[in-house]
Amino acid sequence: MRSFLKFILIFSGILLVSAFLAPILFDFLPFKFEKIFNRIVMILTLLAIAFFVRFRREMFVKYGLVWQKDSLNLWARTFFVSIVLVGILVGTRVFMGHVLWAPREMTFFEWSFRILKVLGAALLIALIEEFFFRGYIYLSLRDRFRWPLFLSLVVTNLFYALIHFIGEDMPFIGPNPTVVDSFRLVMAPFSSLKDWPSFWPGAVGLFLLGLILSDLFIRSGSLYPSMGFHAGCVFFVKMDGLYVDFLNNKSLLWGSSLVYDGVFGWLFLVLMWAIFRGVIPKKLIASQKDVI
Q: CA separation (Å) from 238 to 119, 148, 159, 234, 242?
């Protein structure tokens, strides 16, 4: 409980400092006020993590991030299998007429640059989100706060699902922002949750996706499989706009271009979960003699 209160106090202090700094920096920086505020929060949060969190080797062992002889195999297996499975999902929707096959005309250089750009973004997103949600948040709830396994998984992945929809309902900021506007931005994420009827299908899909990622981490004792799966999904979703067009016919059955916000997507996620439980067998974290 003391650690949790410490976290609340530190983050509250970050928001307070950001609220006062944003209007000052807005007079000097050529960016939107919202972007300046968000960047200050992000920078101060990273500085706080670097200052307060002790990145010891034991921490990386606990998260399964120490490089072992099978780490690349675990990552690659889930990365490529996830691309194939999501490809089958989108291909099925093309076959059913809910998505149009429409590849873009691009040069080899343009394709190569786009692939490298999207791959880099996918790797970074997977690393940060898996380390934070499946690593830090989940293990803190389970080990530090002694929450039951089921409750730790539910809370972790509810947080993971809802965080993707926070901030969509942003307030209007005038040309002369003040500290009051900063606090309006602070409260904006909470006001976004009132629009839950519009995003709950996507939140259900992300919750299921989070459970799959958590199960991969628990079964393997390593974050590499969940990072591979996460990176593969992000890579495919960010690339599919180059060869398919999603029609404006969102429905609860088929969902939208998000893929995971409909009944069909939910069922496919359950199927993917069953497949990955076979692809990544349950085992303990490798012993120290296996560490490279």
A: 9, 36, 23, 6, 9
Q: What is the pTM of this model?
A: 0.80
Distance between CA atoms of residues 292 and 287, nearest Å:
11
What are 94-153's pLDDT values in tens digits? Answer: 998 889 999 888 898 999 999 999 999 899 889 888 988 898 889 988 887 888 999 999
Instruction: From 243, 239, 280, 272, select the one nearest 88 (Cα to Cα).
Output: 272
Of how many residues is the chain composed? 292
How far does CA 49 lie from the centroid of its chain?
18
* Cα 213 from Cα 276, distance rounded (Å): 10
For 275-290, how does the pLDDT look when each residue is reduced to its tens digit (9 = 90+)? 988 877 676 444 333 3
The residues spanned by each domain of the chain are 1-53, 58-290
Q: Residue 250's Cα: distance from chain center in Å?
A: 23
pLDDT computed for residue 286 by the predictor: 40
Tell me how many degrees the CA angle 246-252-256 measures, rounded to the nearest 5: 20
Q: How many CB atoms lie within 10 A of CB 105?
A: 5
In contact, 159 and 137? CB cutoff 8 Å: yes
